Amino acid sequence: MHLSGDSGVLSLFYRSDAAHSGFDNVSFWDANRLVFVEDAGDTLHTQRNALDSAFLFDLRADYSNSANQPIRILAEGRDASATLDSQFGAFAGFQNDGDNEITGWHQSDGDPGVGGLLGAKIPTPFRDGWRLFFTQQHGDNNTWEILKAEKSDNEDED
Hints:
Layout: E1 23-28, E2 33-38, H1 41-48, E3 53-58, E4 71-75, H2 80-88, E5 101-108, E6 131-137, E7 143-146
Antiparallel strand pairs: 1-2, 2-3, 3-4, 5-6, 6-7
C-alpha cells in the first residue's frame, strides 16, 4: 500500500480497562515511551475505588498480550480542597467538581526558541537540563515538579 502525506493507517495501541482508563492527556517520556494521565471521573473513581493516575506505556510493547501492562508512575490522592468538595457533594444544589485530576504532563529543557517546541527534541527526563512537571485541576490546582530521587550511600551506581 502506498501512503501519501495526506493519508495514513490507524491501529489500536491499547484497549483500556477499568484500571487504566479515562485518559485525558499524553506526552512523550522519551523516544520509545509515552505517559498518559487520566481523568476517570467520579463514577469510575467509585466503581474501582481509586483516584486518577499517570501511566507509562512502551511503544515497543504488544499490549494485546494481557501480560503486558502499563506502569503506574503517579497515583493521585485528594488535597484538602478536593476532600471538602467531595464531602459537600452530598448536599443538594452543591456542584462537586470532582477529585483532583492530573490534567497535564510536561517535560522541557527550557529552550524558548523554535528548537524548544514540543516534538523538536527527544526528551531525556532528569538529564541535560530536562525538567518534568504535572498539573492538577480541581482541589488546590497545583503544579508539581517531579525530581529525580537522590541515591543513598548504600545504593549501587547505574
